[in-house]
Amino acid sequence: QVQLVESGGGLVQPGGSLRLSCAARGFTLDYYAIAWFRQAPGKEREGVSCISSSDGSTYYADSVKGRFTISRDNAKNTVYLQMNSLKPEDTAVYYCAADRTIIPRFRLCVPDSYDYWGQGTQVTVSS
Prior knowledge:
Helix content: under 10%
Low-confidence stretches: none
Structural class: mainly beta
Number of strands: 11
Strand content: over 45%
Number of helices: 0
């Protein structure tokens, strides 16, 4: 059974850090495009950070550039999202997603480009 399992969410004060993990089960992430999305209450799901399967290029939403870092550990079959200098507006449910197809760059951080999704993990940034 193909699964993506996120972990690492929680409550953190503004300026703090969290590292989210996304473990793949039932398949190997090596040749997959990977992305982190988030969805806040009343808002659309937005792409936060994405990795291309074709050349490993990484992309970030303008709102998180310089603060978030996406990485993958193929040996552990896991993708990470390191989040630093967190702000209250980063509060959302965070989802990881994966897809085996070669996704064009302009669609890499678009939700409907992805077939496999995790269950989500809540991140709350509040004092």
